[in-house]
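Same chain as my last thread, 287 residues:
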Amino acid sequence: MDDPAKRTMIRQAMSAPYLERAEELALARRWKSRRDQEALNRIALAHMRLVIAMAGRFRSFGLPASDLIQEGHVGLLEAAARFEPERGVRFSTYAGWWIRASMQDFVLRNWSIVRGGTSSAQKALFFNLRRLRARLARERVDAPREALHREVAETLGVRVADVAAMDARLSASDASLDAPVGGEDGASSHLVDFLVSDEPLPDEVATRTIDDERRARWLGRALSTLNPRELKIIRERRLAEDGVTLEVLGEKLGISKERVRQIESRAMEKLRDALKRIDPEMMRNAA
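reply #2:
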């Protein structure tokens, strides 16, 4: 811990006197009723030992102890500000939850560049998986990993898939997608080059766009060969997202549904003939 101010704070915390229950209650009442800052400071300082001790429980996550203590101090001050002395609960019991919550939130924010543990179940899994897995592995030496995942899932009330995903995440450190990966010929690639994407390749996108535009032109020219009534029927029956029925269209046009069917059939035949003529012509022009 290189910061002299933090070292001084820890020395003061370790040498601060414990508070008797009556004194703790009196200080809490002074803060609650008169917002006495000195009373708040004395309560917080007397319980910094609790912060330092709890910081040790999170040392396995590889974060600086000084930062954990600082976050725990924030939680301690929050607990002191919210403490209700008349409830008859010792301050250390109440403050423990706030201190632990502040440290857990700090770990989740800084342990990885990928944010995780956003739900209560995921937080429980993140902070308990290693401990439970180690205990189960000691008790069942030859148990396969899948069996351990099932037991952890049952213990914490989460899905086996969530346990497996968290286990994989805790077993590997973050890696930059820009990190170089050496090739056999000495040339280096980057991790991002090996990511699998479901998106089409740029040349496929360009080809699809060109084809769609060409088909739209062909269809526009073919539709121009229809008379207004045929065009209306084709648009409402074939080109609309929700095509109307023959009966509904017949009522709109004042004809029978059988007559609508006949006109539609004739219009489709005209479109097929037009497209057969247009396709070779367009292909010759493109060439």
